[in-house]
Amino acid sequence: MYNLDKVIPGIIILILFLTTPIWLNLANLKALPPKDPHIGQARMCTTCHVSEKGPDEAVTSEKCVADTQYMRGYHMKLLDEWREKKIRKGEVYYKGLDGKSYVMSLQRTCLKCHSDYLNFCDRCHKFTGVQLDCFNCHIAGKEEKK
Amino acid sequence: MVEKALKGGVWYWLWLLLLLSFIGLAFYFWHSEHQYGAGVITGLHRDLTWGFHIGQLAFFVGVAASAVMIVLPYYFHNYKEFGRITILAEFLAVGAVIIAMLSVFVVMGQPSRVFYVLLHPTPNSIIFWDLVVLSTYLFLNLLCGWTVLHSEYKGTSYPSWLKPFIYWAILWGPSIHIVTAFLLQGLPGRHYWFTAIMAPRFLASAFSAGPALLIFLALLLKKVANFNVGEKAIQTITKIVIYAFIINLLFLLFEIFTAFYSGIHSHMAPFLYLFFGYEGHREWVPVMWGSLLLGIVGLLILLVPSLRRRETTLTLGALSIFLSVWIEKGITLMVGGFTPNVFETVTPYKPSFPEVMIALGVWSVGFLVVTILYKITLSVYESKNLAVKLKG
Amino acid sequence: MSIKRREFLKIAGYGLAGTILSITGGVFVGRGSEILKGLERVSSTKVKWAMVIDSRAFKSESDFEVVISACHKAHNVPDIPDKNREVKWIWKDTFMRGFPSAETRFISEDIKKRPFLLLCNHCDNPPCVRVCPVKATFKREDGIVMQDMHRCIGCKFCMAGCPYGARNYNFYPPREYLKALNPEFPTRTLGVVEKCIFCYHRLDEGLLPYCVEASQGKMYFGNLADPNSEVRRVISENIIMVRKPELGTNPKVFYII
User: ipTM of this model?
Assistant: First the structure.
């Protein structure tokens, strides 16, 4: 092979470049899950959802439109479905787990209980690195995002 | 063949560097538009939402479409003189389509959602069709130009499977411009655009401005790269420019006749605003007359046989016509369409500095592509000439 | 019998082409019947919302102010000082600007100077819907021309299409121009187009639009498809104008002169 002295370093630089996220993450200790202010230990995103004295009373009072397990995994799907139904199909109500009808509205239904944006949405989303753009428009309540 | 783009002189690299720095600058302004808002960065407003950039779309789609005026005689009528310039025309079309598509992209308020156009295809919207025809045309010209050049490189004639694509591209050229005219001419309440002659006039102005640019580029290449497309080819193209531009001027007269003889005020208003001023607003009057004057001077130069045979005057004439159409289609077409506004009053528009810089960056992307493709073309022909000489 | 490779490829090619054709053909046929079904649905619609504004009843500055601020406060419409790039869902303008194609040379000074409330006309034949490349703006079955701000790509084609100047592009970050936020309704973001949505969210829950409610009887709202509705009665009993009827957009906001 010709030009080995150029090709090999080139490949190495390319690999280093492509793996930058890994190196940056290793260098950055902030990537650890944030500490739960109530329990004082670092836990995964489950902190805000299941802790006994968690920041969100909505979860403990079991009044959500769907069960916690489903919401934890698929809340984005549900919100997307709501958006489609409410805005494009003109439907208004969603039948919740408890058989009651809820108005399909992020601000008027979800955020009424889940009002602590920083601890409820932001913490896990920051940790998982999934950027939210919901609140570019929707108003997150008292705890406005920066 | 691509490797030929990597070997060039100092001027070649400096030129690429200049284009790249324009692109970088444009990216900076475009990015800050999405941070601070179009109100801070552009001159657009409520009553004129499509400005300088969409004007560039209209103009450069025309430049792209005009390749058909060179491609058609060469492939369809076997007009051999166009052999060399056909590849140049096809590659110029590639660059022009890229400029056109990027010009639409930069005006989008939510660029990350651009693929919704494909995710939610909407056949009743002309933008959807414009995207379809433009991307097809881009593909066709790249395919045809590249394949023909590659055959040239290998010293064979182009493969027969290419024929259908060539004919497809010939049909597609006018289509892209007709569809772009349809963007504007079907809108209720925009009197300046609301005319069936919009599409034919687009074609006429395109078939004069596009080949005029090609003449300029060909003469430039002759000067700086010693690449001659042939005197006869250039003279034929000049005649195409003359006829197309005369038709364009006639169409303008037809428009003015219809508006002013009918006496319908709303149809006259945009012409009044552009040529004489309206309600005390005269922002674009000198520009409009300047465009007309340039066009007439350019036409007169090209009409005189002794002038169009001399290269300096030919360049001057071609550039005048190119500029004339660029002003008319690239700027005042949009201004006239939106002024007077829907309330029949005037809200003046002036492209802002960042807006023009973004456009400059968009042009640079197109010309970067054209430069690289031309570089490859020139190198292929050069090595062929060399081979002939060596054998000779 | 053995076939040569070349022939096999040929046959396979035809087969493939045929399959692709029939699939795309099927899609189009399918879409066609869907569209027809859609047409049927529209023609049998029972509801077609419309608004009638009694321009005679709006006299003082505060008559307008109450209505406009009711809408703008509820919908978090920003108050942008740059008048050429502001956002407004319902606003006050003159007769001459609102009805530029009307005969105005010899009409009474009263009408010539009378201010009018202008808003999206929720056209029955809306050009904005026709031109939108992503269906971000679309006509609901009850005739409301909706705007899906999640879908909008900000191309501003609808603003070129709208002959009434009813559409607003967010030229400035809207939150910076809002003094108070209504937590019940979202704001918008930079680079999307917004407009009056006929308070679809309130209609769906059985309430009247904010502006109609705040006008205290100066505006009527109801079902145009129902011959016995109040809007139909008011329209038939008064002298009515719509904006730019010559464009064939069929506006559903009517003005009593």
Answer: 0.89
